[in-house]
């Protein structure tokens, strides 16, 4: 039985391949309209980085064209804030006589609340609202302990995730194809007020950044990046993934964060190249799968523990940590002027490109929360407002891990030494010299401690803003006291 007209509401699932809501809607309805509801006035407030906003805008141009091939017009309604969304959607479904709205779930607290409000309002007006689990291979609340509870620790979560993946979910883990074009001609949306609904013409780029062109948005380029990674880099991933000067990771996170690519597509591409990878946990392909499972773990945690998307630490005792408040330290970290070369190189790369390597995210977040003892939430927001791949679950997970406030986090007494981390993961200082130009002539021997170089006076580079040894002891002490262990 076909509903007449359906609406597919796109959010962080900007693709036509393997899009559960789109597939289900096209099975149910003979005519479809697609909707995207940007909230640019809230992007700043919600820390959407300009780099990411640019990526979204460019992707929408591609998506609009792809949907057109399926006889589905894409309408955009710019809304001032989340609160006005339910009414805007109700008006649109009324104008187009839509009987069923489809979307993929977003698991964050605000987005979840917004969807409940939309669903309620539509139900009051006899319009159905159906949302699907789509952004994880195995949906939240499906990977549970024997007691039926959410896992709080990654390793047993992974074990159970793999168990389900092996025995039940291989079928459902397979990506859906692009749906067939609808037979019925596309709905005439031209009648809609073009002031209110943008449905024709080009999408305006409000954030034109040349740097973001490093992140192509067309389907083939994204697919190529995935396939090339699987063929050329996955085998050595376990050896190269921690070295920032090596191009050894997939650089797919912006696409996964915005749903331009699904985790099922990633795993399918990996399995095509390494069908036996589950049997070789010490090798590169499995190590990469492990990271996809980390992504799932953080999403599952956010659903099981909604406080995580509400700025609260996972470990309640860590609320007692007396975080420091130093504007000077904050600014030095943000601008890459801490006097610790690996930290500064990473922070400058973030400012310039919106990107940072995973090892460097760990080092800079640890430095922020332990050496500077600044509140993890401030660092989390800075990352979110600058990263091209900003993703609440992974970012919050990463920050709470580094700050020792999260579940399965780095224990508070294990504090990264930024100098030895630099020596270990950028031994010759190649990455440092790329981003901290003042240090380009410093010999390898001093690249991680340039203040000890006999010619340090000639450098326009700050001395370390903290003494790591003293800062480490101080951090351990305040955490110990907060936990009541002192
Ligand atoms: P690859 O190494 O190729 O991994 C493949 C995919 O697995 C990634 O694209 C990503 O989707 C996922 N992944 C990899 N590592 C992790 C991880 N540790 N946690 C969760 N998922 C992971 N990732 C984001 O996508 N958005 C963020 O906002 C974000 N913020 C972070 C903040 C901190 C403090 C830390 C420590 C990590 C953060 N991460 C975040 C996780 C990780 O750093 C990035 O996903 C990774 O660097 C992206 O590079 P890649 O695509 O080359 O990853």
TrEMBL record:
The record marks 323, 376, 399 as: Electron transfer via tryptophanyl radical. Residues 4-137 form the Photolyase/cryptochrome alpha/beta domain. Its EC number is 4.1.99.3. Its cofactor is FAD; (6R)-5,10-methylene-5,6,7,8-tetrahydrofolate. Signal peptide: none annotated. It is an enzyme of class 4 (lyase). GO terms for molecular function: deoxyribodipyrimidine photo-lyase activity; DNA binding; FAD binding. The keyword Lyase applies. It catalyses: cyclobutadipyrimidine (in DNA) = 2 pyrimidine residues (in DNA). FAD binds at residues 237, 249-253, 288, 291-298, 389-391. It comes from the Bacteria. Binds 1 FAD per subunit. Keywords: Chromophore, FAD, Flavoprotein, Lyase. One of its GO terms (biological process) is photoreactive repair. Involved in repair of UV radiation-induced DNA damage. Catalyzes the light-dependent monomerization (300-600 nm) of cyclobutyl pyrimidine dimers (in cis-syn configuration), which are formed between adjacent bases on the same DNA strand upon exposure to ultraviolet radiation. Belongs to the DNA photolyase class-1 family. Belongs to the DNA photolyase family. This is Deoxyribodipyrimidine photo-lyase. It comes from Photobacterium sanctipauli.
């Amino acid at each position: 039985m076909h509903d007449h007209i359906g609406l597919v509401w796109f959010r962080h699932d900007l693709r036509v391949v393997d899009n559960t809501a789109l597939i289900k809607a096209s099975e149910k309805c003979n005519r479809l309209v697609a909707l995207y509801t940007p909230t640019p006035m809230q992007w700043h407030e919600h820390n959407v980085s300009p780099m990411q906003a640019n990526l979204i805008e460019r992707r929408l141009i591609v998506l609009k064209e792809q949907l057109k091939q399926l006889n589905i017009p894409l309408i955009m309604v710019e809304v001032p804030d989340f609160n006005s969304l339910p009414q805007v959607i109700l008006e649109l479904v009324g104008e187009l006589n839509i009987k069923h709205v489809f979307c993929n779930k977003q698991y964050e607290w605000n987005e979840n609340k917004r969807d409940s409000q939309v669903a309620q309002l539509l139900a009051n007006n006899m319009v159905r609202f159906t949302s699907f689990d789509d952004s994880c291979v195995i949906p939240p609340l499906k990977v549970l302990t024997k007691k039926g509870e959410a896992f709080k620790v990654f390793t047993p979560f992974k074990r159970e995730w793999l168990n389900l993946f092996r025995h039940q979910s291989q079928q459902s883990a397979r990506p859906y194809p692009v749906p067939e074009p609808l037979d019925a001609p596309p709905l005439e949306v031209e009648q809609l007020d073009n002031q209110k609904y943008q449905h024709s013409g080009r999408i305006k780029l409000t954030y034109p950044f040349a740097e973001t062109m490093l992140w192509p948005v067309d389907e083939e380029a994204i697919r190529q990046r995935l396939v090339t990674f699987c063929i050329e880099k996955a085998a050595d991933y376990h050896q190269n993934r921690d070295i920032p000067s090596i191009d050894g990771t997939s650089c797919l996170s912006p696409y996964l964060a915005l749903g331009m690519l699904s985790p099922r597509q990633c795993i399918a591409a990996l399995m095509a190249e390494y069908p036996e990878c589950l049997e070789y946990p010490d090798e590169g392909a499995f190590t990469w799968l492990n990271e996809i499972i980390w992504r799932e773990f953080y999403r599952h945690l956010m659903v099981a523990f909604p406080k995580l998307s509400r700025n609260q630490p996972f470990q309640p005792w860590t609320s007692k940590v007396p975080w420091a408040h130093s504007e000077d330290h904050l600014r030095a970290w943000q601008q890459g002027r801490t006097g610790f070369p690996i930290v500064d190189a990473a922070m400058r790369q973030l400012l310039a490109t919106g990107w940072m390597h995973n090892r460097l995210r760990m080092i800079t977040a640890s430095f922020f929360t332990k050496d500077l003892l600044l509140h993890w939430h401030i660092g989390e927001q800075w990352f979110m407002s600058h990263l091209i791949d900003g993703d609440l679950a992974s970012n919050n997970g990463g920050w709470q891990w580094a700050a020792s406030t999260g579940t399965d986090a780095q224990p508070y007494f294990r504090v990264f030494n930024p100098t030895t981390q630099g020596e270990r993961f950028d031994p010759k200082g190649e990455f440092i010299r790329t981003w901290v130009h003042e240090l380009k002539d410093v010999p390898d021997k001093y690249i991680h401690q340039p203040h000890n170089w006999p010619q340090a006076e000639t450098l326009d580079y700050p001395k370390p803003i903290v003494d790591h040894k003293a800062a480490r002891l101080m951090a351990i002490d305040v955490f110990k006291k907060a936990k009541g262990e002192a």
